[in-house]
Amino acid sequence: MSLLENLNWRYATKKYDPTRKVAQEDVDKIVEAARLAPTSSGLQQFRVIVVSNQELKEKMVPIAWGQEIMAEASHVLVFAAWDRYTEERIDKIYDYTTDERGLPRGRFGSYTDKLKAAYLPQTAEENFVHTARQAYIAFGLAIAQAAELKVDCTPVEGFTTEELDELLDLKSKGLKSVTMLPIGYRDNEDWLAPMKKVRNPKEEFVIEY
Ligand SMILES: Cc1cc2nc3c(=O)[nH]c(=O)nc-3n(C[C@H](O)[C@H](O)[C@H](O)COP(=O)(O)O)c2cc1C
Prior knowledge:
alpha+beta; 9 helices
């Protein structure tokens, strides 16, 4: 099936079959799609936390405003972004990139100086708006990869970020949660499964000049 067919197949699953688990190989592929996402300046400003522990998933239900999908799904992927830019974080990823490419460290020094001049004077909140945006790109790719594998998922923004950050101890890692992606297999009784996918008509969606 083509990517477009799979994107038509997928939907924001509202009820999972709790007895069906996603194979580790498929979890790995979904995470890999996120890891391969492009990021602004290649800074890779986010991480993915993979939660399979049932107790933790159950604790996520009240945090996600009572959404039972958190506990029913096989795994929950949490997309979390840097809580702010720092000189060390920018240098670390650029040192790693130059090392991996066999280039001298500091090769991109004038560019990273520009990044530091742009981001470091900003507030942590302003930084996080930018880092979180990068996580959304990966989130979209993970959703598409899940569809390609015929794994169901639900994009979730309906949760209290501070509570999730505390549950997963994200602050100590310099991260703040952005979105969650429960993955698994739809339950036969999911009311949304048979519903038509509704999108704006192409003529309205595309503005051509
Ligand atoms: C960023 C984002 C956050 C969302 N948050 C939730 C959520 O918390 N709970 C939920 O059931 N669906 C959530 N959705 C699913 C949307 O309602 C759904 O994607 C949209 O209605 C389109 O339907 P479809 O994905 O089934 O095609 C979210 C979607 C996105 C993209």
